[in-house]
Design goal:
The protein has one domain. It has two helices and five strands. A hairpin with a 6-residue loop joins strand 4 and strand 5. The longest helix is centred in the N-terminal third of the chain and has 16 residues. It is globular.
């Protein structure tokens, strides 16, 4: 039997940091912004990517464990976003 566990969601402080990254992405008119944190040996520990959303109501965030979340502009709650291969390719095509 498959065990169902609680999916890891970003905390309120992490959502605020992602919101700041998304706001910077919007003000600089960038399609994608990525922040990577590394240790002394240049190994990436944590990375967050914010994409400009297609529907102009929020941003899509790729979390460090490759989970996607939708972050609306006027909400403080991250909602899970089901990223399919077609959606991923269309986002990458909008960036290029």
């Amino acid at each position: 039997m498959k065990r169902k566990g609680k999916k890891p969601f970003p905390s309120r402080n992490q959502i605020d940091a992602c919101r700041l990254l998304a706001k910077w992405c919007k003000h600089t008119n960038a399609a994608e912004a990525e922040v990577k944190f590394s240790d002394n040996s240049d190994r990436v520990i944590f990375s967050v990517v914010a994409w400009k959303s297609v529907d102009k109501h929020g941003n899509i965030i790729r979390w460090h464990n490759n989970r996607f979340f939708y972050l609306p502009y006027k909400s403080f709650k991250a909602m899970p976003y089901k990223m399919t291969l077609a959606k991923y390719k269309s986002h990458k095509q909008n960036i290029a």
